[in-house]
Structures are given as C-alpha cells and as structure tokens.
C-alpha cells in the first residue's frame, strides 16, 4: 500500500525559526491576516494597555491563522504543521491553473527541496505529477552554488535572463539583500526548469517538464500511484542490462556536453530506474562547459561517479579516458579555460 513505501522514505522534520522572519506585515498580507489601522491601534491602546507581544508570539499566531491553513483547495496529503504553510503557498498557482487536482504523498524530503506525488487534472498528458517544492530559504541547506553559477545568467521567474543593465536587480544580488537572495533563489530554480525543457526537447532521458512557479516546478512522475521509481543506487542490475544502461547514461552525458551543459551533480543517486529504463533528475546546478572555470573538474566528477556505480554492477570502464575523449570531442576549450579568457 502507499503508506508502506512512504514510511520507508527519508522522514523530514520541519523546524521553524521565528527569528528569521523580519517582516511580519509582509507575511500577514500574504496570508490574508487583517491588521488594524493606526486609529484602531490607538483607540485600543487607550482602552487597555496590553502587554506588548514579542515577535515570536506574533509569528506563532500568524502561523496558526485559519486563513493560512484553510486555503481554497484541499489536499489528501497531511503535511506537518509548518510544512502546510509553504507547501500550499507554493502549489496554489498550479491548482489555479488547473494543472493538478491533489497532493497525494511526500515522495522524498531533501535539504533543498521536497518532492510530492500529485494527481494531475484530466487535461494533463500524464495522470501523476512530481512537484519539486523548494523549502523556505531559511530552512534550506544549499551546497556551494557559487561554483555552479559561474558563467550562468540570472533568470527571472519566466526563465528570461535579467540583463546587467537592470540595475536594481543586479545591485540587489551584488549587495546580498533579501530581494537579491530571492532573485538568486528563483534563478536557481528556473535554471533547473529551463534545462529540463531544453533536454526534453532534445530527446534526453529526463522527466517531461509541466510547469514552474516561484518556489516549485512540476514534471512527469516516474513510477506509479503506489511506488515511485527507485534511484539507481539501490538497484542491482543483470550484467546485460547494466551494460545497456551504462551506454544510455553515457549517451545522455554526451548529449548534454554537446549542447554546452554539464549536470553538475550526477551519480546513481540522481538517476531513476523504472521498468528497465533510466531517467536523469535534479538539474538546478547545471554547469556551462565554456563559461565556468570549474567545468572540466565538475564534468570529470560526474563521469567518475557514474562509472563507479556501474563498476559495482560489473561494467568496466576508464572514467578519466571517457571524460577526456568527450571533452576533446565537444568542447573547444582546454580544461579550466573559458570563452572570456580567450577574448
């Protein structure tokens, strides 16, 4: 049954850092909590002198407001208390756009994002959707994303590059303001979605992209209603199947490099196995081969990790030679060099 495999998944404990929220008014407006006007505040204070509430108390009351938990839509999945706030807020646009009908289960909890099994609307090309919902910025544990972002454009929520002449946005990013951090987060998410769109269009073994929002992306769910596709790391392959799938993964690695892309975090943990086929997932850290000084080292690591898994399945290979041959074939630059260095 569904509960069997859900219980076996990594559990997620959501903590809530009240002090990390500095703008109560923004949260109140966002979640529909009515605030008294200045005159009313004054009259109330004249009638009685209540003890001033701490920011922690205010946020706690906000989090418990029925306006937050009683949204316009209902879901079958029962989220944790504070998970409900950001989950529903992140997915509500997709309900409004009639892309999904329900959230059925938590498939995977991670440091950066959670993945949920969702029921699609009848108009969608697939009955089930995987919704990758990024955790609130305060609760995420992002890896060293600066290494991957080198050479990448800053993308808007529409997946359109924000030009350097857009001074307000670029200044906010440089100064590391709250607005700049949000822009960087949206860009990180949109790079994953835009990469999925491009690779899917090229025929790569990736989930079909179905929608994107400011804090979540939708893609085709790999698996069925009762069981998600396992990651390749937990699968033991027959010798003939191992050789075939190794060739498929290498083909996808080469296809990406041919079009200037490197996965950036590829391993048997980011490859799904379902009904004899593999699907590559998790692309937010996609690296550009000709504009990132770390590109070749990142590429070598991807190839080595893939080869290490398939070696455990009886497939012998030389990861260093594979990486060198593919780089020489598809990249015009020597390792650790970029187009900017040549100009």
Summarize the structure.
The protein is α+β, with helices and mostly antiparallel strands and 343 residues long.
The number of helical segments is 13
Structural class: alpha+beta
Please summarize the sheet with the most strands: 5 strands, antiparallel
Identify low-pLDDT runs. Answer: 1-50, 58-71
- CATH domain topology of the largest domain: Phosphorylase Kinase, domain 1
Helix content: 40-55%
What's the helix-strand series?
HHHHHHEEEHHHEEEEHEEEEHHH
| End-to-end Cα distance | 59 Å
Strand arrangement within the widest β-sheet reads 1-2-3-5-4
Computed Rg: 23 Å
For the record, the CATH class of the largest domain is Alpha Beta
Q: What overall geometry do the principal axes of the alpha carbons give? A: globular
- The whole-number mean of residue pLDDT values reads 78
- Report the strand count: 11
The total number of structural domains is: 2
Name the CATH architecture of the largest domain: 2-Layer Sandwich
CATH H-level superfamily title of the largest domain? Phosphorylase Kinase, domain 1
Strand content: 5-15%
